[in-house]
Each structure stands twice: as structure tokens, then as C-alpha cells.
Specification:
By secondary structure, the chain is of the alpha+beta class. The protein has eleven helices and 21 strands.
């Protein structure tokens, strides 16, 4: 039989096979479902093939592989579907492991990706932490620490802390001409003076701050101080900036504490180069000039109008004195107050604190520029201080000059106006100073107003002792009788032996309500005793640079 005849007979299911085609009986019938092993077992046994017949090896599969589907020889119209179903039946058991294998491979890939991402993030965090730590250590190491504990003398000779949550920080600008500052002239080896001194008071509730300028030419009693070579100076009366020349920051602090009876909690000293770097770090500061400003000593030549000053120009602006205004230190302090108010406003209102690179530049310049006491000698402590005051409203950040007038014995020197000065000092001691409206306009001499102090309450009637220098240069303790001329006298800066506490006493056991001699002072008995003692008006950080 030919192949075409055999194909024709296979295409007719159900037709009886002739003896001639008996060997083809084992050919599997058409199915519509996968064939199982049990079905193959129950199939009828095929007749024994004729020895004369041509072997049909293409049709009959070996018994060892009954699941193999028939070959697609001359398939009829339904045979492709049957072949596909048979193939699925044959490979069904192998397909499931293949699907599981694909899922396992996907899981392994996902796991590797997750591990890679985790390791990358961890490395980034570690690298970032190392970088932040390195930056912190750099900034922290920039600060120069100056511990003045030994030079300030025994604790019992310093004013006690009255308002514990308030802070009083003495800011000093040094005209040291060594190192990078030599370009501004040599004033003698070992000679340093402070032409700028500001007492900054931060209210306990951090809702206001008052910066009080102390004139360099103010006549004061300078106590005995430790010189740089370790020797001691004698107490005498002279202009204020000589204290820094004699004994540096320690002698200046002692002089301030003796004059005001205010405990100085911290101090910061900044020199010319440091000031320039800080101004450059904030991209300059705006000022407004009502008339041209030319001062060859300060290397300054500016026309009238509004200007943005860089570091070098700003230094000249705050230093100029001889050929500007009336040539007095008073007008120079007024310009310094204007400049500082504009600087504070720019730092607080601008993006200096939100842009990381600008903040870093500011911190780097600031920390490299200052010398501070151990309480402000770390970046963390400086940042904590900054965080505590950044919420103070700009209209409550006031700059003014201590009440002063020409000295009665030399009009080129200054002296305090009483009782306004002492009432201001007492208000700061007790953290009872209010900030009023900003000042504008000119003073009685036709120059820009540099602040006012309005007394709100009369002086405390309790008398207090006061240390001064007599005509022979000896230190003496006196009790003023003029109302309001000395405040409450809490904690004299330098005391006579009768006023000195017993050795071994400490500030931690001192009663803040006691006088220097140990007698309790008057306790507050009414609402007026807790209200503001004075209201100050000065230049504020809220004012426009061209206002007033």
C-alpha cells in the first residue's frame, strides 16, 4: 500500500481496518483531552502484524514512551489541535517545575537588587555621616577658646546671677595689628585696644534683645588686672578702651562688671580680618549714606546713596571717624549700630540659614573669626545660642548707646548720664527692660539719634555699696545717697575686705536676692516690682537701612 492510500485511511476515523492494514491497528484514536497512563493501559491489544507487511515505524511508537503523540504526517483538519493537546499532556508535569524555576529566578533577582540598594544607601549614609562629622569637627576646631576664670578673680568678687535664664554677652572688636591685620598699620608691639564694645542682653523669654554700645572714650574706674606677662596693674581711672590694652578681654569684663554690677556670662572677641570674612560670607551688607563718605585712614571713598558693602568696605565704614560727621566716637557707634542691625536682618530674613552652602560659609567665617570663653567654645553651643534667639522679632532687636555726655573735665571724653545709666544697668541685671519704638531723626546736636532710655520706675530705695578709685589711686567702697545713682548694688565687681565673703563660698550657694554685704534686699511686693524698670528705644533690625 502506498503512503497516500495509508494517509487516506487514517483520515477516516471509525472505518474497519482490512487485513492488509492490520498492522496499523495500534494507531491511537482521535482524542479531545490529554491521555493518561491509565487510559493507555486499558487500550485494546493490537493484532500481530503480518510478516509480509511493510513495517510502520513512523506510526507506532515504542511501548517505553507511550505518551509521545503521533507524528504530524499529512495531518487532517483537526489533527494540529490534537497534537498540541498531546504535547501539553506530555509536558504538563515538566511545565510546573519550569514555572517555579522562573519565579525562583525572579525572586533571586529581586533579592539581589534589594541587597544592592540597601548596601548603597548604607554606604551613602555612612559617607554622609563621615562628611558631616568632618565638617562639624572643622568648624568646631576653628573656634579659639580663651578661659579667663583665673584672671577674673575669685567668684565671690564677681556679681551674682540674678536673672538665671537671661544671658549677657560682651562683644569686643579688637584692633590687634598682628598677622593679617598688619595691613591696617602698626600701633606698637603688644599694643591692642578695643574700639568697639557692645553688651548684648538676651531676655529670658527670648522675645527681645538689647545691644548697648560702650564708648571707647568713656571715663571709668579700671580695676587691678593681670597683664599679659603675668604682672598686675594698679587700679586707676582712665578712658574705657585702656582696659583692653592693659589686660585684654579679662580686664574689660572686670571693668564692665564693676561699673554696671551686671554679671557677664559670655564674651566674644573679633578682629579686623574676621569681621571682613563674615561680611563677605553673607555676600555684603546694605547701607545708606545721606552724604559722601571719604576717610583715607579707613580706606573708604563712597558717594551718597545706597550701597552694598563688601568686607573691606564694611570695615572702613564701621571704623571711619576722623573725617566723617563730627569726628567723634559717638557718631561712629551710631554707624556701627546701623550696620549691625542691617546684618542681623539679612541673616534672619534672607536665605542664609536655609541654603546649606551659604550657612556653611557663614559658620566657617564666623568660627574662624572669634575668640570665645569655654561656654561658647564649641559649634554646638554657638548653634544652641543661635537657635534660642532666631525667633526674636526684628522690631525687638534694639541697638543703642549707653546714656552719655561730654566729660566735665575734658570734652573729648565721655561720662555716664545719671540716673538713666544706672537704671538701665539695673533693668538688665533683673531682666526688666522693655524695647519700645525705633528711634528716628536727629538729636539735639543735629546728628542721628543713637537711642533713648526712659525710666519707668523710680530707683529701689535700698542703698548699696559702690567701689571707686580715690584721688590717690586707692580703691575705696562708698554708699551713694542720690536716689537711683547706683541701682540695687547686687554683687559689686570689687569689694573691700569687709564686703568679701568667707573663703570657700561659691556662686551656687549665693542668694540672688542678697546684697553684697549679705543683707536681703527688698522683695517684690506689687505688680510694679516685676514690670519693666526702663523702656529703651534704639535702632532696630526691622528698620530699612535708609530710614531715619
Amino acid at each position: 500500500m502506498s503512503d497516500s492510500e495509508r494517509a487516506g485511511k487514517q483520515a477516516e476515523p471509525g472505518r474497519d481496518a482490512s487485513p492488509e492494514t492490520a498492522p496499523e491497528a495500534p494507531t491511537e484514536p482521535e482524542i479531545s483531552a490529554p491521555r493518561t497512563a491509565a487510559a493507555e493501559t486499558d487500550a485494546p491489544v493490537a493484532a500481530e502484524p503480518d510478516p509480509q507487511a511493510e513495517p510502520e515505524q513512523d506510526v507506532q511508537a515504542p511501548e517505553s514512551a507511550p505518551a509521545v503523540p503521533p507524528p504530524p504526517v499529512a495531518a487532517g483538519p483537526e489533527e494540529p489541535l490534537a497534537a498540541a493537546v498531546a504535547a501539553m499532556a506530555a509536558g504538563g508535569e515538566a511545565a510546573a517545575p519550569d514555572r517555579l524555576s522562573r519565579r525562583d529566578r525572579r525572586r533571586r533577582v529581586y533579592k539581589r537588587v534589594l541587597i544592592g540598594v540597601t548596601v548603597t544607601v548604607a554606604l551613602c549614609l555612612v559617607a554622609g555621616s563621615i562628611a558631616v562629622y568632618a565638617i562639624y569637627r572643622k568648624l568646631d576646631g576653628n573656634i579659639t577658646t580663651e578661659d579667663l576664670t583665673a584672671k577674673l578673680g575669685p567668684e565671690q568678687e564677681r556679681p551674682p546671677i540674678v536673672a538665671h535664664d537671661a544671658a549677657n554677652i560682651l562683644l569686643m572688636g579688637s584692633d590687634d595689628r598682628s598677622g593679617d591685620n598688619k595691613q591696617y598699620g602698626d600701633i606698637g608691639e603688644g599694643t591692642k585696644r578695643s574700639d568697639t564694645t557692645i553688651l548684648l542682653h538676651l531676655a529670658a523669654d527670648r522675645k527681645s534683645s538689647v545691644a548697648i554700645s560702650i564708648p571707647r572714650d568713656l571715663m571709668v574706674d579700671i580695676p587691678s588686672c593681670v597683664r599679659q606677662d603675668g604682672s598686675k596693674s594698679r587700679a586707676y581711672r582712665d578712658q574705657f578702651n585702656h582696659a583692653f590694652e592693659i589686660g585684654g578681654a579679662a580686664c574689660t569684663i572686670k571693668t564692665i562688671e564693676q561699673m554696671t554690677k551686671i554679671r557677664v556670662d559670655h564674651h566674644i572677641v573679633i578682629d579686623f580680618s574676621g569681621f571682613k570674612e563674615m561680611v563677605n560670607a553673607v555676600d555684603g551688607v546694605d547701607v545708606c549714606l545721606s552724604q559722601p563718605m571719604r576717610d583715607t585712614a579707613a580706606k573708604l571713598d563712597l558717594p551718597a546713596g545706597k550701597h552694598r558693602l563688601d568686607g573691606e568696605q564694611a570695615l572702613g565704614y564701621v571704623r571711619a571717624r576722623k573725617n566723617v560727621d563730627d569726628g567723634s566716637d559717638t557718631q561712629r557707634m551710631t554707624r556701627q549700630q546701623r550696620f549691625l542691625a542691617a546684618l542681623v536682618k539679612k541673616v534672619k530674613v534672607g536665605d542664609m540659614l536655609t541654603q546649606p552652602w551659604k550657612l556653611y560659609n557663614l559658620l566657617d567665617a564666623g568660627t574662624r573669626s572669634i575668640t570665645a570663653d569655654p561656654g561658647l567654645s564649641s559649634l554646638r553651643e554657638l548653634m544652641d545660642l543661635s537657635d534660642s534667639i532666631k525667633g526674636i522679632p526684628n522690631d525687638k532687636v534694639a541697638f543703642l548707646t549707653v546714656p552719655r555726655q561730654p566729660y566735665r573735665l575734658d570734652i573729648n571724653r565721655d561720662e555716664l548720664i545719671q540716673p538713666q545709666a544706672d537704671r538701665l544697668f539695673e533693668a538688665i541685671r533683673q531682666d526688666r527692660v522693655a524695647v519700645g519704638a525705633a528711634v528716628t531723626g536727629k538729636d539735639e546736636n543735629g546728628f542721628e539719634n543713637n537711642g533713648e532710655v526712659r525710666i519707668e520706675q523710680a530707683a529701689t530705695p535700698t542703698p548699696s555699696t559702690r567701689t571707686t578709685i580715690d584721688e590717690d589711686g586707692n580703691r575705696v567702697t562708698v554708699t551713694p545717697t542720690a536716689p537711683g545713682s547706683s541701682g540695687t548694688g547686687k554683687g559689686a565687681g570689687t569689694r573691700s575686705p569687709a564686703d568679701t565673703k568667707a573663703p570657700g563660698s561659691s556662686a551656687s550657694t549665693t542668694d540672688p536676692t542678697s546684697t553684697s554685704g549679705g543683707t536681703p534686699s527688698a522683695k517684690p511686693t506689687s505688680a510694679a516690682d516685676t514690670g519693666p524698670i526702663v523702656t529703651v528705644s534704639g535702632r532696630t533690625a526691622e528698620q530699612d537701612v535708609c530710614a531715619g
